[in-house]
Amino acid sequence: MAAALPLSGKTALITGATSGIGLVTARELARQGARVVLVGRDTEKAERARAAIQLAAGPDAEVHVKCFDLSLLRNVRALADEVQQELSQLDILVNNAGIMPGTLSITEEGHELSWATNHLAPYALTNLLLPLLDAAGKARVVTVSSVAHWVGEIEPNRETRNSPDKYSWLTAYADSKLANILFTKELAHRLDLTGITANCLHPGMVDTALMRPDTSAVMKALWWMARPVMVAPEQGARTSIYLASSPEVANVSGRYFTNCRPARSSGRSGSSIEASRLWRISAEETGIE
């Protein structure tokens, strides 16, 4: 009789799972026996991802697809509603979806695009799925941040964040990645007496489709210059997979990791006052406490 796989009987939901480190993360969790729910924007890409994971993980792998554009909060709510109707518990949530902003873009709901995608969506989805995570007894929330958070700060005023005169693709991205860490730390604090852990990570400089078509020429040039030292998605996904599945971090929460190890983050990212302030801003902007 074959031994049970490490994640047999567990369910993992991974956003941004149709390519790059999200796809690799989903594939490897499926290989460990988890039922995986892939979330992506493009139906065709999602089906290709499902087929690739099924091929890699074997015919018994259980792979489900959800297609939602998570830059819109109404879609985050719709995704959470579907998942709550279909699942009785969720063991692993990997907030992986993210974009590198291009020119200033405001969503239909009035949020700067990278702020909406990279921060508000993980904040909203995680909070909406907390009952399922709690039902698992022991569950993990993993959020992909970036070393770019070192130059980030939290702008409390949405009008300033959306202002063409104030906008910069670099600060918009860095701010959202700082928000990922502050969100993780505050979430871990709020869940301290539960069985749910929350950690975040920098995946390294990964050669993925992070940039948008309207990304600035300067950023594209810098990206292409850096490509020779970038790592493949397989290597970039290692820390996400580690935090989602390793017994070594089963009881670790509120930490920032790089290369599967706790890492130093910016002074601002460690501020409990900043974390509490961000939570209040996020609750107001999403309508979710």
From TrEMBL:
An annotated Gene Ontology molecular function: oxidoreductase activity
InterPro entries associated with the record: NAD(P)-bd_dom_sf (IPR036291), SDR_fam (IPR002347)
Keywords on record: Oxidoreductase
Record flagged with keyword Magnesium: no
Cited Pfam families: adh_short
Protein family per UniProt: Belongs to the short-chain dehydrogenases/reductases (SDR) family.
Name of the protein in its database record: NAD(P)-dependent dehydrogenase, short-chain alcohol dehydrogenase family
